[in-house]
Design a protein that fits this description.
The chain has helices at about 65-75, 85-95, 95-105, 115-125, 140-155, 170-175, 225-250, 260-270; strands spanning about 5-20, 40-45, 55-60, 80, 130-135, 160-165, 180, 190, 255. It has about 270 residues and is of the alpha/beta class. It is globular and about 60 Å long.
Amino acid sequence: MGQKFSVIAVVVAGAVAAVKVAANGDGGPKPKKNKTTTSVVEVTLVGASPGRQILILFGPPGAGKGTHAPAIEKKLGTPQLSTGDMLRAAVSAGTTVGKLAKQAMESGALVTDEIVCGIIAERIANKDCANGFILDGFPRTVEQAKALDAVLEKSGESVTRVIELKVPDAVLEERICGRWVHKNSGRSYHSKFAPPLSLKKGKLPKPKHMCDDLTGEPLVQRADDTSTALVARLKAYHAQTVPVLEHYGPAKAVGVDANRTMALVWADIDAATN
């Protein structure tokens, strides 16, 4: 088992982050060493704007989160925050919590919920989150939801809306298994619904026929964009998501039928974010 890292006192009170590390050389007491704790971090976010729009966007792979999230960002003036992107940015920037995350990853340990919440607390203190933010990919479990709630409660805030994009599993298989991406840019294509110009009529979507429209570089398919992998991904998604939706309850959680035209799906999302 890998090392566990403890991040304590994640206190959210606003938009500017002050990070205090209880470590050698900071002038404070030295943390007691033990087998499960290598560092102790205190994150205090000062000066939060009241009434921020805090959204959680749920949806199985292929449901259209990447399609509709930019429209939500534009409407609300809030950024979409991916835990993966935040984690990489914190590690790259060498923030206090980012260093803990790096230590965990380099030791082969899982990045704990406490560390993830610390990274979120740092990120939502930025000026672009003054009006709120959209969380994509977090929380995945009830335990993570409770940890997020605790962070927000420190500034008198809470999640304002949870939107789940719902698509039948059978439809998702067709969407996912036909998906191709340009690795360098992230541009996404679909062999049936949005084929690249290189896929001529009557040709099968093989690698030699699948090239990026702008660069001509080859497109790739994700290793888990297969029927077999999708079954496992959907099983895990449903098992994790239902309890989180129940945690927030019908007053905050809204389901949107995403197996319709983009215009109809957006109309429901638009109504849910008013």
